[in-house]
């Protein structure tokens, strides 16, 4: 699929040259189209996550959930988005108006940038960076800064408490997250997300990293939940204590941007769990592998088989990602919220030593293999 996209791209470049356009202009248009496709895909996934969370939580609590707005209530998130667009946009009179507007933008933008290094197939990735896995940690660390700005600019005591909580929580759990990524990169010999998946796919299902890094997988899972501020780690916006925290003074589209950021963050972390530990696009299901092989042998051309193989890879990646999202939703409605001291103790006193010990043992094992 990516090969044909490259062929079409070269044909468009040739057409633009014949029409008198510069190649740099076409490259700019191509980047713009890729960016718009990325933003459209992410914003489409946010209503899906919101609907899935409502239906799963309703099932856990033996309720029905949304069912009147469209079949099975699938248009309820769309109705909520329209409602937020039509609501009055209020800015606190004694707050900092410029920072108040900047906060939600700083929250959403890094999450969108992190999707650049997520591969859905070997050739379906917007940017195959050599430091792709570490870039996600670096970019996601900007999000708490936006929450801190939003809390400070609101001039509200609840928001002022929610912002520093977000910063403290992010610092506590970003370090174990980075250490777990370093352990996976040592096993794979690269920080590239594509190379990490290729290393796991060499040995099929038993080559996936949960079997080689069980402690790192558990630590990464817990740290990613805390990084996304999911229950039981949603201390920055604890309703009982902080009245929604940094979101207290927000309304209308600005509150919608914060909502998009909080829902698109799990939508980004779940593919990273899939890529780092669950084999990415690699499918060890014999039926799917035989289906693609039989389909490619029954067609004389290779275009249909390439499209089918890319489709199977995308479906496999999305299925694993939504499995992680489903588990995180179940966790939200199963475990109670922790206190702030318990949250910091878990990050600094337990996850950090465990992740550091896992990295040291992995590095020692790799040195033994080299020697």
What does it look like?
It is a single chain. The protein has helices spanning 2-19, 23-60, 76-86, 97-113, 132-140, 143-153, 157-188, 193-201, 209-212, 214-227, 239-242, 252-277, 286-298, 303-332, 340-370. It is mainly α and 371 residues long. α13 (286-298) packs antiparallel against α14 (303-332). 37% of the residues are buried. This is NAD(P)H-quinone oxidoreductase subunit 1, chloroplastic.
Please sum up the structure shown.
Keywords: Chloroplast, Membrane, NAD, NADP, Plastid, Plastoquinone, Quinone, Thylakoid, Translocase, Transmembrane, Transmembrane helix. The protein is built from 15 helices and no strands. The chain is mainly α and 371 residues long.
What is the alpha-carbon Rg in Å? Answer: 22 Å
Low-confidence stretches: none
Distance between the termini: 41 Å
Q: Number of DSSP helices?
A: 15
Number of strands: 0
Bulk shape: globular
How confident overall, as mean pLDDT?
A: 79
Q: Main sheet?
A: none
Secondary-structure element sequence?
A: HHHHHHHHHHHHHHH
What share of the residues does DSSP label as strand, in percent? under 5%
Task: Give the structural class.
Answer: mainly alpha
Estimate nothing, just give the exact number of structural domains: 1
Helix content: over 70%
Structural topology:
Layout: H1 2-19, H2 23-60, H3 76-86, H4 97-113, H5 132-140, H6 143-153, H7 157-188, H8 193-201, H9 209-212, H10 214-227, H11 239-242, H12 252-277, H13 286-298, H14 303-332, H15 340-370
């Amino acid at each position: 699929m990516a090969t044909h996209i490259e062929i079409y791209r070269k044909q468009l470049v040739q057409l633009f040259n014949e029409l008198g356009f510069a190649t740099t202009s076409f490259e700019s248009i191509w980047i713009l189209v890729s960016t718009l496709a990325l933003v459209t895909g992410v914003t489409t996934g946010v209503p899906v996550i919101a609907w899935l969370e409502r239906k799963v939580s309703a099932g856990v609590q033996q309720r029905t959930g949304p069912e009147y707005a469209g079949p099975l209530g699938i248009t309820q998130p769309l109705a909520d988005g329209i409602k937020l667009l039509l609501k009055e946009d209020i800015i606190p009179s004694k707050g900092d108006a410029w920072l108040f507007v900047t906060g939600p933008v700083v929250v959403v933008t890094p999450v969108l940038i992190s999707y650049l290094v997520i591969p859905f197939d070997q050739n379906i990735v917007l940017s195959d960076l050599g430091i792709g896995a570490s870039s996600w940690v670096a970019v996601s660390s900007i999000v708490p800064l936006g929450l801190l700005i939003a809390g400070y600019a609101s001039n509200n005591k609840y928001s002022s408490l929610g912002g520093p909580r977000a910063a403290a929580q992010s610092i506590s759990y970003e370090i174990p997250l980075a250490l777990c990524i370093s352990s996976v990169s040592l096993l794979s010999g690269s920080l590239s997300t594509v190379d990490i998946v290729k290393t796991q796919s060499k040995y099929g299902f038993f080559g996936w990293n949960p079997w080689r890094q069980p402690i790192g997988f558990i630590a990464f899972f817990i740290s990613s939940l805390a990084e996304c501020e999911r229950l039981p780690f949603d201390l920055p916006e604890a309703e009982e204590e902080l009245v929604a925290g940094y979101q207290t003074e927000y309304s209308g589209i600005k509150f919608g941007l914060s909502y998009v950021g909080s829902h698109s963050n799990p939508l980004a972390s779940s593919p990273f769990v899939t890529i780092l530990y669950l084999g990415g696009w690699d499918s060890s299901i014999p039926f799917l592998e035989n289906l693609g092989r039989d389909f490619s042998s029954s067609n004389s051309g290779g275009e249909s088989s390439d499209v089918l193989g890319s489709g199977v890879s995308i479906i496999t990646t999305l299925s694993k990602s939504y499995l992680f999202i489903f588990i995180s939703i179940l966790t939200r409605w199963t475990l109670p919220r922790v206190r702030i001291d318990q949250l910091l103790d878990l990050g600094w006193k337990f996850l950090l030593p465990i992740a550091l010990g896992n990295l040291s043992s992995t590095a020692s094992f790799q040195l033994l293999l080299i020697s």
